[in-house]
Structures are given as structure tokens and as C-alpha cells.
Amino acid sequence: MLTVHAYAATAASEPLAPTTIERRDVGPHDVLIEIKYCGICHSDIHHARSEWGEQTYPVVPGHEIAGIVSEVGSEVTKYTVGDRVGVGCLVNSCRECEPCLSGREQYCLKGNTLTYGSIDRDGISTQGGYSTHVVVNDDFVVNIPEGIDLDEAAPLLCAGITTYAPLRRFGAGPGKKVAVVGLGGLGHLAVKLAHAMGAEVTVLSQSLKKMDDGLRLGADHYFATSDPAAFEQLAGTFDLIVNTVSAKLDLDAYLGLLTVNGTLVNVGAPAEPLSLQVFSLIMRGRSFAGSLIGGIRETQEMLDFCAEHGIGSEIEVIPAEKINEAYERVLASDVRYRFVIDTSTLA
Ligand code: NAP
Ligand code: ZN
């Protein structure tokens, strides 16, 4: 066992605090990673505050992990000490069901094992990346290509793959009009990725405050959703809308912006139920879909795509002592565009 420094949530209403946790011994198929950076995803806040159901405490959040391999198990062939690697939201799955066998481990029929807040197959609670080291089975580790700095790579492990997967699934590319709702951690990467795929990209943000950034990141158009005229002007425009908003939205208003047969895919995961008028779908053959992160193979594909297109996350690197402040700023949509913890400050 290795005792490592970490930052944990101890109760839904308490701030996160420094702690130490145990990491398991490196097994034959394990990789010990010295974590260099870990992104702060809005999902960390949902979990830490038990917004998606009662969390078991203490929990160390963090599923946007970038670091360096410092030890490998006897059977590991894919990685060696010194490799630049990442770990996202998944650290295990059954590996036998159809989704697992087809590389969609996030949809494991026997239940995936999340990087934190899950009970792993060995019965031990998983703890995430707000810590200095983690031990992960090599099947759930990916290579971070040279050319992407580790700090800018960390958010790709969740925010990147979560937006890449639905953009690919629904055919974002040349000739397609894609809207991204919410210019936060997920949204800003959705803009970069959809632009790199060749789509015509529109940002739908609450205000025009971040318009210069949105256009610089690759958007062709930018509208404020606080302006009702935007919904009239854009009616029937988009082939695909990727909704990254962490709060409840008026789905009917956004469905009205889709073309015939267009799709609104939700990756934003508000705690409250969303409702819609079924006529918003049936009158134009529209679809409302959901998407959960992405599989391991596709995560590697996304990282390689990012390296090829020079895509990293826009980040603000913070020391561990600023995690609670960062949570408040994320909740206030005051993030440009991902907080990343420098884990050397945990010691
Ligand atoms: P984030 O950085 O906070 O971004 C969310 C953005 O949504 C904000 O920047 C803001 O953009 C907009 N927004 C926030 N509150 C709003 C409101 N009340 N009305 C309208 N717009 C609002 O969060 P994130 O890390 O990108 O995560 C976004 C959501 O995705 C979270 O619910 C998270 O749990 C979820 N998520 C899902 C998956 C998955 O696999 N499906 C994976 C990761 C995260 P503007 O300021 O531009 O309006
Ligand atoms: Zn996440």
C-alpha cells in the first residue's frame, strides 16, 4: 500500500479538505501514475455535494488525470516508466458484455467502475485524481501524445471525450451546422473539436460576455440565449445541438432550433428532471439523445485527434488550496475554461 496526499469531500455541505489515502499495491496489470495535473469537472461538484444521489464520504474527486508512469506491473507491456499518460472517468468494467467488447465500457451492462465514488471489482472504494498518485489497470490508461502539454491535456480526459463522442456519433463535419449550448469546460472543447471536424459552429451562451473567446476558439457565430430574438432568428437551423449546461433548460425552445431530423444531445447532467413537449420532436422528426463520456479506445482516438489538430484545453492552473474557491467560480460560470489542479501543491 502507498499512502498519498489528496483532497477530499467529507460531507455534502462541507468544503473539501486535505487528507491522505491509500493506493493499492501495483498488481501484474497495474500502472502506478504520478499525477501531475487533474482538471475540475462540474461533475466533481455534483458528486461532492451529493446532487446525483447520496455519495459515500470521504470521496476524493477528480477524473481528468494527467501524469507520468512511475511503476508498472509484471504483465504490463503497453506502458513503461516515464510515459505520459492519462486516466478519465473509468477505471474498470466487466470486459465481457457487448458494450465492453465493442469499446463502449462506459455503458458496461454489469456497471462500470468510475474513477472515484465506485466500488471496484476488488470491493474497495475508488478515489480520484485530486491526489499525487493513482494505481490503475493498464486497460484503462491512455497515452497522452507529445505535443499536448500535460496540464492542457488533463481536461481532455473527461470534457474532451464527452464532447468528442457525440460529435462523432451524430456526424459533425463539413456541411453540418452544430450548436454548442454553454461555453464552460465541456462547451469550449466542443467548439474546438467541432470546428476541427469541419462543422459550422455556433455558440449559444447565456450572454455575449465570452463572445471574443468563443470566436477565437473556432465558433463561426455566437448568440446570447437571454435574447428571445435569437430563438426566432435561429429557428430550424442546426443539424446537431450539443447541450453542455449543468442546469435545467427549456428543451422545447432549443428543439425548435433543429432542422428536420436534427438531434439535440444532452451531455449536461442537471440533477432535476427535464421535460419536453413531444410535438417538439414529432412534427419535424427530431431526436433528443444522451451521451456518457466515451470508451477507452475512443478516448485514445480523441487524444490523437487533438494532437493532430493542436487542441488542448484553455486552463487556469490552481494550487490545491484554491479548490473550494474554484468550485464556487465554476458554479458562477466564472471559468475560462477549466480549472486544473497542480498536484505538486498537495504535499
Ligand atoms: P461548466 O464548466 O460549469 O459549464 C457549464 C456551462 O453551462 C456554463 O459555463 C454556462 O455557460 C452554462 N450554464 C450554467 N448554468 C446555466 C444556467 N442556469 N442556464 C443556462 N446555462 C447555464 O460545467 P462542465 O464541467 O462543462 O459540465 C457541464 C455539465 O456536463 C455538468 O452537468 C456535468 O456534470 C456534465 N457532464 C456530463 C458528462 C457526460 O458524460 N454526459 C461528462 C462530464 C460532465 P455560459 O456561461 O456560456 O452560458
Ligand atoms: Zn467530468
Structure description:
The protein is of the alpha/beta class and 347 residues long. The protein has two domains: 2-158 and 294-346, Quinone Oxidoreductase, Chain A, domain 1 (Alpha-Beta Complex); 160-290, NAD(P)-binding Rossmann-like Domain (Rossmann fold). The protein has helices at 42-48, 98-101, 150-153, 159-169, 185-196, 211-217, 228-233, 251-255, 279-282, 296-309, 323-331, and strands spanning 2-8, 17-23, 30-39, 65-72, 84-87, 90-92, 113-114, 133-137, 142-143, 177-181, 200-205, 221-224, 238-243, 258-266, 287-290, 315-318, 338-342. Strands 3, 4, 5, 8, 9, 16 and 17 form a seven-stranded mixed beta sheet that branches. It has a six-stranded parallel beta sheet with strand order 12-11-10-13-14-15, covered by helices on one side. A two-stranded antiparallel ribbon has the order 1-2. Helix 4 (159-169) crosses helix 5 (185-196). The chain is globular and about 60 Å long.
